[in-house]
Design a protein that fits this description.
Radius of gyration: 13 Å
Largest sheet: 5 strands, parallel
Order of helices and strands: EHEHEHEHEH
Structural class: alpha/beta
Mean pLDDT: 94
Shape: globular
Number of strands: 5
Number of helices: 5
Distance between the termini: 11 Å
CATH class: Alpha Beta
CATH topology: Rossmann fold
CATH superfamily: Response regulator
Low-confidence stretches: none
Strand order of the largest sheet: 2-1-3-4-5
């Protein structure tokens, strides 16, 4: 059975890159182009893992994490932050809001797969 992953990023290129990295692996991928649309998706479906950017329009990644953690459909779902931000303050804030892991962009395929395996066990 495929694991359901929600990719939340306003960059279509980044979402495509993630899809290419995970092609052939047992993951079903759903895309959202910002935090607001991702929250709508979480109201309709549960996911096994969420990959999210921090810098997005409407609802940024920080607000998305905070709001997602209040939803029954995502309160225990691993949330992996993918971002080019490298400051300690941003990392600490993401974890304080409920992020499970943090990877820097550009994300390397091996690193991404390792994080997914750690959280999903597959």
């Amino acid at each position: 059975m495929s694991k359901e992953i929600l990719i939340v990023d306003d960059s279509q290129t980044l979402r495509l890159m993630v899809k290419i990295c995970l092609k052939g692996l047992p993951y079903a991928l759903t895309e959202a182009d910002n935090g607001a649309s991702a929250l709508e998706r979480l109201g309709q479906q549960t996911f096994d893992l969420i990959l999210t950017d921090l810098n997005m329009p409407e609802v940024d990644g920080f607000e998305f994490i905070e709001r997602a953690r209040k939803l029954a459909s995502a309160e225990q779902t691993p949330i992996v932050v993918m971002t080019s931000r490298e400051g300690e303050v941003d990392i600490e804030r993401a974890f304080a809001l409920g992020a499970s892991s943090y990877v820097h962009k550009p994300v390397k395929k091996e690193e991404l797969i390792a994080v997914l395996v750690r959280h999903l066990g597959t």
